[in-house]
Amino acid sequence: MMTNRPHVSAARPLVLLDVDGVLNLEVRPGPGWQPHRAQSPIGTFDVILNTGHGRLLLEFADRAGADLVWATSWQHYANHEIAPRIGLPELPVIEVNAHTGAAGIHPKTPPVAEYVAGRPFVWFDDDLDPADTAFLERHGSVGHFRIIHVDPHHGLDEHHLRQAAAWLASLPSSHENTK
């Protein structure tokens, strides 16, 4: 959802990436998806990753003039366990404490609100709901944003990237941004 508030920064937009349900699926849906063992902050897990996601995301970010950022409970483990397996470089990480957050708000949402600092962002996630959107809309350091829900049984695909590209293209140019 896009807020009505313009962003305060002329900096590049952000593309926030979740891992589980977006890049890591519970079942292998088809060719290109490969099983791996990966260490996370809470243990070792089987993950199913698509090696084509890295290329798609890098090309998307380049065309959109956006920066990729991890917004996942995998935190820094995403750079060591997920990124190399799908062809992404090391990315910035939004620090998430799974034990914080208001009732009904995903623990990732408050740290995301602080991290974005007025920059517009698209967030690919499978586990956010209207309470998270409402929190972001009310937060003072959040400007334009769009949450794109990804079905955890199918994962991120080109349809999601087209939605994000269209939304990013609809943003006002930086000279129109005032708060």
Notes on the protein architecture:
The structure is a single chain. The protein has helices at 53-64, 77-86, 109-116, 130-138, 158-169; strands spanning 14-17, 33-40, 43-50, 67-70, 121-125, 145-149. The strands form two sheets. A four-stranded parallel sheet has the order 4-1-5-6, covered by helices on one side. Strands 2-3 form a two-stranded antiparallel ribbon. The protein is globular and about 40 Å long. It starts with 13 loop residues before the first strand and ends in a 10-residue tail after the last helix. Helix 1 (53-64) packs parallel to helix 5 (158-169). Residues 1-9 and 175-179 have low confidence and may be disordered. With 179 residues, it is of the alpha/beta class. It contains five helices and six strands. The protein is 28% helix and 19% strand. A hairpin with a 2-residue loop joins strand 2 and strand 3.
Report the biggest beta sheet as strand number plus sense, adding barrel if it closes: 4 strands, parallel
Order of helices and strands: EEEHEHHEHEH
Beta-strand content bin: 15-25%
Q: What is the end-to-end distance?
A: 18 Å
Low-confidence runs: 1-9, 175-179
Count every helix, treating DSSP H or I runs of 4 or more residues as helices. 5
Give the radius of gyration: 16 Å
Strand order of the largest sheet: 4-1-5-6
Give the helix level as a range of percent. Answer: 25-40%
Q: How many runs of DSSP E, i.e. beta strands?
A: 6
Average pLDDT reading? 88
Structural class: alpha/beta
Tell me the overall shape: globular
